[in-house]
Queue: 3 jobs
Job 1
Amino acid sequence: MEQISHLSRDAAELDALDRRILRVLQRDGAISHAELAQEVAASPASCWRRIKALEAAGVLGPAVRLVDPVKVGRGLDAICQVRMKTHTAEVRSSFEAFVQEHPEVMDCYSMSGEWDYLLRIAVADVRDYERFLMHTLLNHPAVASSSSHFALNRVKYTTAMPV
């Protein structure tokens, strides 16, 4: 299968070779095409064509390197739940643009349930988080309240999607 076909608007149809390629690339994005081909039992040319098709279909995004947060002074993960004052499209857009502008906000999820957003914020320490919370996040005009939790230990962390 050299071309990716779509099962639905979002899900691509992947065969066994595509899945093997994705598993290897998620583990080692810097692997050479020759090494990848050997590991997935395919030719380098076939692997290259499939990677290009997976990129074109949006299955594969840009290649990145993962950074150890402790080594760069961002060793504390704060999980912050946020409740909005109102829920208009304009207010949500404003808040979502705000979180995009703040690099310490690593993840932002619009949530169902009692809280409107869930943020994962990478900071140096509790004092650093307190500054961000009190002087930045809670100063956003749309934020009504928040609740914070601190990760004691990262038990599991992965960026690899099960395929």
Job 2
Amino acid sequence: MTKNILNEEMIFAGFGGQGVLSMGMMLAYAGMIENKEVCWMPSYGPEMRGGTANCIVIVSDEQISSPIVTKFDSAVVLNQPSLDKFERAVKPGGVLIYDSTNIINLPTRDDITIVPLAASAEAVKMENKRIMNMIALGGLLGIKPIVQIETVIEALRKVLPERHHKLLPLNEKAIRRGIELAQSDATVPADVK
């Protein structure tokens, strides 16, 4: 029996200030803790907050030959400009997760798994808008368990300054809520099931 080899190429994209780079960094850090090969490559406009930001993350069981990727296994997009730009870049059979709170023109592809995730609205319900990115990360992990949730929490514990460790339970709750939402809302094409 052959073991499935993980090689997940992802893009996280949205406005600066939405926690896009942090979301990708947490996933990459969790991959490192699990002894996987990782790559995290951020990109953002000169405006930072309010401008567009994205990061490419690769998590693999094998050595990563190049961090430059133009087609992705998964995309997590948090705003309309990012959806417009990256929907076409998801490989057939891949996964597109989008914040349905902020997207007006919905994705149209029928050869990928599409997951509308009301991450921003859910963060408001949980009384902390800053956890929206952790809800979105949970959404990805609910569809593709690339790393263990416990490892992401461990990564958060190592990366967050100790004065913010009181937020760890809320972040864990946000990740778990994202998983629940994604697993209930995924639209999988018939030929991918």
Job 3
Amino acid sequence: MAVHDQGNIDPAIVAALYVEHEAELKRFLWGVLHDGAAVNDALQSTFVKMIECGHATQEETRKAWLFRVALHEALAVRRRQSVGKRVLSLLAAAHDPSSGAAEETFVRLEAIEGVRLALQQLPAEQRQIVTMRIYEEKTFAEIASELNIPLGTALARMRLALVKLRRALPDPTEP
């Protein structure tokens, strides 16, 4: 296998893989995303991962690896789009004076700010796990894999973070 000094895959190999699989990957991603810009984003992210991690792949399994990574990237794009849509609907409700939800939205935004401040108080490792799980909607297995930590460590960091957040945030059932 041809690799560079830093352990990165040879750019010529990545370029050849791109030429060979671009059209098929785009069709596959279109089936998941149905949006040209999102397809291009996911395809670009897939090949960025190949540049970063491709040196660890076997030549005979690279096509399957690309499709697996492309699927994960497409799902991440869909999660981000979903979060964006939720934020837009909250903002729309906040700006609709006829909805009567202005006070509720203000209270919700105040609570969100409280959570944001409480999250900032967490140690970086715990905050990263909470962010990946809650905001990026990743599974603990995905988080552990991405961070290259044992699954039990990811779960323990989340549990500790939740304990600290419970202490830092007021109980919503109390007046």
